[in-house]
Prior knowledge:
Immunoglobulin-like; 22-stranded antiparallel β-barrel; globular
Amino acid sequence: MRQVSIILLVILCGVGFASAQTNIVGTVTDAKKQPLTGVTVTVRGTTTGTITNENGRFELKTDRELPLTLQISFVGYATQTVSVRGNNFRNVTVELAEQAIIADEVIVSASRVEESIAKAAVTVEKLGPRQFANSPAATPFDALQNVKGVDLLTQSLTFRSVNVRGFGANNNNRFVQLTDYMDNRSPGLGFGFGTVAGISDLDVESIELIPGASSALYGPDALQGLMLTTSKNPFTYQGLSAQVKLGANNFGKADFGPKPYLDVAVRYARQIGTRFAFKVNFQRLTGTDFIADDYSDRSTSARPGFFTTDAGRGGVATGIGYVPNDDPNTNFQYDGVNIYGDDINVAGGSFRFPADYPRQELRNVLVTRTGYREIDVIGNEGKVFSNRANVALHYKLTNNIEASLGWYYGNGNFIRTAGFREYFPDYNRHQFKAEVRGDNFFVRAYTTQQKAVGWNIGQTAVAINNSWKSINQWASEFGQSYIDTKTTVGDARRTADRGRYLPGSDEFNRIRDAVSSTYNTDFVPGLNNVRGTRFRDNSQLWHYEGMYNFSKLLRVADLLVGGNYRHYTLESGGTAFPRRPDGSEYTIDEYGAYAQLSKEFSILTGLTFKPTVAIRYDKNQYLKGGFTPRASGVISYGVHNLRGSWQSAFRNPSPGQLFAIPAARQNGEVGGLELAYNGAGLNTNPGYLQVETTPYQANPNATAAPQPFIIDPTQYTTEKIRTWEVGYKTVVGSKLYLDAYYFGSRYSDFIAAQSVFQLLTPGGGAGALLTPSNYRTLQVNFNNTNEIFVRGAGIGLEYGLGSGYTLSGNYAYQIGQITLRDARGNIRNDRAGNPVVKRKMSNPEVAQLGRNFFISPENRYNISLSNPRLTDRIGATLTYRWTDRTWVEQGTTQGDVWLPSWDSFDAQVSYRVPSFKSVVKLGGTNLLNQYYSQSYGLARIGALYYVSITFDELMR
Length: 956
């Protein structure tokens, strides 16, 4: 990477070409001859551009010879092209026509070359200046929540994860996020960071999203889709831009809200001469998170009797039978969703009285100890911050070849949710990119350098409790109080809690800080046999890639060929990933190559057909390589475009899913490789599936003891998908825009971590599982033999009502079905003896047999009414969003539950001040402040109100 950077620096500083400049001058107005401010004017096919001033005038310098073509675009108006010749280059006049429906946008993500979005062979969504300006969302990234089929899960105020087409995850590693074509994901942790370390909001030019398999061109991991965020080129977008946003959230919360937040961003770009341009960006956000404060009793299949069953049909599940009791004063097993240290299935959080306990009232009764709220354990009152910065240098080697160097920086704090909650107090990431790009090729190299330190919130709460009093001693005092004094559950708790460390006390803070600042490989100094909960991930990525488009050489067809190589260095000191036997850190090498061939045929007058075939090969050094082909085609007749595609994709397991080994006696994830499986001791001390153990724990006298769960880790491989899709896109009379799709996918070798109970002392037998302190809970990664089928459809509509009003909406539907198979490939039966073949994964008789993790609402829709030009100064948008109830299966300390459906009203009003090149925007999401959950255990989302003022391209 350093060598590439040096070479490009020499090129940037040493190469120059002398050529004459042409100064093009013109004016842009609307149909009423009123000047339009902020219109983008570019030389088509280049990055040379400018915008109009408050008088609608523009001035553009270029060394391209006349004649040439200008492209003029502006939010709410139809894009125009104008030919500039020797007789008009000093007085170009353009009149833009208002257009509510814009469907001729250019995209690059679908096939890696520029093409009309209408003729893309796969479903593609694009958000640009028009959508950002009209969206009530506070940021461009948040505007994704209005895209059909997208589930945007809020982990923190600064961290949201994108999910499409099922298997919704808080850390989605089946979806690739690219920022200026750089992988946005953490090199070690393996999930996309979204805006935690993305580019500044002021620098976002567009976001393109492909829902569905995209590995044929973008490599492994683009199993469910791809998102490309592109920043603004400094040749086109120049001058000083600034934004100040004031807002507030957490309304309606007793003794807490509301809380303010401040978001400030600055961008400056300048072109020097005709060949060099640079840009500088900085953005800082401070505020208070949506607090995870769901204190209801946790719904999880780890609870005995969780499912209602039909005894006459072999005990098959008919629904959820567990009735939560949210009162710890009456509930022996109270386990608050966002309260930690009180977990029913975590050692140290609960105690089961033995079957021979002296008093019958407590025999075989499970009791949870008193835990701590998440906000108390974190100890930061929910404060969050985010810093993003970027510096880029661009140099035009020729009119068609541009070189660039870029530095991208992200820093902040956030909470992430995997099978448990983790707090990152100070995340840092640097990305450096060097690139040379032409009309028909690019070469690119970048590196990601990360410093991430975090700690497990739940394990920290358990450690605080245990450092004060062991679970056995606590339970003994509870039992003695409950029986001898004939008290209530609440009174017995209070008796056992006497002297407990109170949140915010000096002793509580001292223990918490000691535990959370000690790595999980070490014992906490001064505490008896208590391990730390801190881990680090300072992993790094080096990525090199290139592509060449042979279309101009072949002429008979469009052919592009490309490839890439990437190298990961894992660096966690053994806290997140194991070390090699010699003590060094693991590294991962991957490489891939692809080719794509396409050709457009004219069949009849106005009727064309464009088939495309692509194939790619990728290899991870620890796993077998594989091919991912794609075949697609588009039939176009006038404004009607019918598309179809078939493609395959696969996903390499994330580093955690490869190597992870939890510390001794700790809960956590176990990687699928043999070294991780054996490192966790599962080869000599196999665990027991939670789903098979829970019924035995509930009634050991009447239920058969579970058998050890044994797999062959030498067969661990990549996760695969095959998917087909058909779609239709059209624009009718510049009034109605329609985009519809239907797809089907089939997964194989699906990687799903199952909850497994492993005895802390080997050889104890299944009887030891009756006492939670005897075992730990592991999330074991492996390839199951199940067949998974996902079907879905969606439609998006926009209709121009006239006078600038647009009514738009979209609807998406999807379901997940499964055929269950055992390790030998035989179809499994439910407990009534019926084969589980293509059954919905949310059905209780299927969920009863184990978690499948298809987390997705079946239905969701959005409706918006907008007018960007109510007057020449005012624009407004009103949006309604609705999401169906969702069956969630998640994690060690999360749960299994039907999340209720939710809806949200969002709105914004904007006011333009052309003389100051500024826009004032008043907006809000969830205006009615009806708190809703997007996934179990996450913070519930309430209203977010804000006002912003944006100054665009001053001092140009």
